[in-house]
Amino acid sequence: MAGNLVEIKDLHKRFGEQVVLNGVSIDVAEGQNLVVFGKSGTGKSVLLKCMVGLLVPDQGDITIAGEKVLTLSLKELNELRKHLGFLFQSAALYDSMSVRENLSFPLIRNFNFTQGEIDKKVERALDRVGLLFAIDKMPSELSGGMRKRVGLARSIITEPKLMLYDEPTTGLDPITTKEISKLIRDLQAELKMTSVAVTHDLICAQIISDYAIVLHEGNIRYRGDLTQLTLSDDPFLKNFFSSEVFEDSYGS
């Protein structure tokens, strides 16, 4: 049985008087895909930033692939980050760089690959997301869905152990949302990745999740299989999944 790739214990984070995380504990097994739900301001993105060391929690422990994140030096943290992928809400492409240059950048910055090795990795990553033909296009020439695919290709170019997604389908129509979500699921299976995805999008969550948690007032209010949560008679869950998630998913 696979062990846990991610272990988060009693995580606390506040900004001034605002308590954002109040004792959050999560285990994610190798190969498992966790979806994190919650209303705006409930700490979903803060959780991801703590995991990669962009924010320091006030209390708690974070272990990723056996490494105690909060005790790592900057050099050690940067080494760990080489094995993590992060897909931002906006895809975070450099507008002044071509698709090829966007994908090459993290390889040039963080590794010592030859130009030939970089070219092969870029082409392979773009082929995986069905965009090899766009290798020399600029981001401004791409649709929203294509930009997401390029962002995904850049995130998986190093074949990371852990992928973190921050609202991966925001702003996409339902058809494109399904395409991107299925691509995420297929790539995770192919590359044997583990993932934590923050989303409001029920379509995406239904396709990629193995289990889900709902953050509320700094705590994990619920956790379990997504179907179990969406069909629950609990008043909070019924209200949350009928309004918050569906409105964001379908634009109603």
What is the arithmetic mean of pLDDT?
A: 89
At the third CATH level, what is the topology name of the largest domain?
Rossmann fold
Number of helices: 9
In CATH's first tier, which class of the largest domain applies?
A: Alpha Beta
Alpha-carbon distance between the termini? 42 Å
Report the major sheet.
Answer: 6 strands, mixed
Structural class: alpha/beta
Q: Write down how many β-strands occur, each being a DSSP E stretch of 2 or more residues.
A: 10
Broad shape: globular
Order of helices and strands: EEEHEEHEHHHEHEHEEHH
Structure, explained:
This protein has nine helices and ten strands. Mean pLDDT is 89; it is low at 245-252. It has two domains: 1-83 and 163-252, Rossmann fold; 88-159, no CATH class. A six-stranded mixed sheet has the order 6-7-8-3-9-10. Strands 2-1-4-5 form a four-stranded antiparallel sheet, with helices on one face. Helices cover 40% and strands 25% of the residues. It is α/β, with parallel strands linked by helices and 252 residues long. Strand 4 and strand 5 form a beta hairpin.
Secondary-structure blueprint of this entry?
Layout: E1 4-15, E2 18-29, E3 33-38, H1 44-51, E4 59-64, E5 67-68, H2 74-81, E6 84-87, H3 99-110, H4 115-128, H5 144-156, E7 162-166, H6 174-191, E8 194-198, H7 202-208, E9 211-216, E10 219-224, H8 226-230, H9 235-250
Parallel strand pairs: 3-8, 3-9, 6-7, 7-8
Antiparallel strand pairs: 1-2, 1-4, 4-5, 9-10
Helix pairs in contact: 3-4, 3-5, 4-5, 5-6, 6-7
